[in-house]
Amino acid sequence: MPSSNDSSSEGPRPDTSSPAESSPDTHLTLPPIATRLYFSDLKQYRKLGNNKSHSHVYHISPDRVAKTGPRVTPGEASALRLAHERGIPVPTVHDVYQDPETSWWVLILSHISGDILDEEWDVLTADEKQSIFASLKTITTTLRSTKPSRCISSVDLAGITDSVFLPRYSGPFINETEFVQALIQSLSARQEGPWMQLLEKMLLAMPSHGGEFMFTHGRLNPQNVLLRGGELVGVLDWAEAGYYPRYWETVKAAFWQADLEFFLEALERGVLEGCMWELGVMLHVRDIVF
Q: Which one, of 190, 250, 241, 253, lies nearest residue 216 by Cα?
């Protein structure tokens, strides 16, 4: 007869680990439905960021924020989870749900305290800037080395969410040709005439990049990078992340750069790939969209 302390006679032991000890990427700790906050609740909390933004971020506790708005999608949560899994410093996703009051999606995220790179750049030392570029290069290298997709889509393989397109939610696209054709349609809805006809020819003449599409942040610029003590501690705003042609990260970074010197140095240091042909064409796209 087995002894009383022989664990083999007891059968499987129950899992007594706390849910908080589980990886947020595989076992989300979801609060009870009764504790979920809807838009009427969220408005009582301090709002963070730009009031002109199409999303709203509320500081709901010392360590959590709620992000909601007409352009917030579950795809952003999927992108954050994948980025976290790949070791990129991003907010942890704690909950995702749809607000019955507004029909908007709500993301409950960890709050990363820090300073916006765009606001701190001029006071950083040369060594701090070098360290930040090195961290950014590690991040973009990680993005490019993530297993690619065979279609252009959000991380959860739904349509992309991108301000360049009309409608903003488009796709998914099975190949680059479909993607470019949808882009041309979006631009034609904004502008007509000979210049648009020329731009269409330029877009169609861009070289193909094969059938694999890279994990892309989509808005990688100093406004979305957080620092603490001169070191990079977070990358924010994954709303337009997904799987895109290889040049898209560079192109979209150029779209949102307020400081061209920063963008040029990012190219020089290999943070962004030098897709010059595509960048030249897409800067004309930016002029139409923005």
A: 241
Q: Which of 165, 136, 158, 174 is nearest to 73 (CA)?
A: 158
Cα 130 → chain centroid: 23
Please determine, for residue 185, whether its predicted confidence score (pLDDT) is greater than 80. yes
Tokens of 216: 């892309």
pLDDT of residue 187: 96
The pTM score is 0.86
Helix H, strand E, coil C: the string for the chain is CCCCCCHHHCCCCCCCCCHHHCCCCCCCCCCCHHHCCCHHHHCCCEEECCCCCCCEEEEEECCEEEEEECCCCHHHHHHHHHHHHCCCCCCCEEEEEECCCCCCEEEEEECCCCEEHHHHHHHCCHHHHHHHHHHHHHHHHHHHHCCCECCEECCCCCCEECCCCCCCEECCECCHHHHHHHHHHHHHCCCCCHHHHHHHHHHHCCCCCCCCEEEECCCCCHHHEEEECCEEEEECCCCCCEEECCCHHHHHHHHCCCCHHHHHHHHHCCCCCCCHHHHHHHHHHHHHHC
Same fold yes or no, 7-110 and 115-289: no
Q: What is the fold, at CATH topology level, of the domain defined by 7-110?
A: Phosphorylase Kinase; domain 1 (3.30.200)
Domain residue ranges in the chain: 7-110, 115-289
Share the mean pLDDT of the chain.
Answer: 88
Does domain 115-289 fall into CATH 3.90.1200.10? Answer: yes
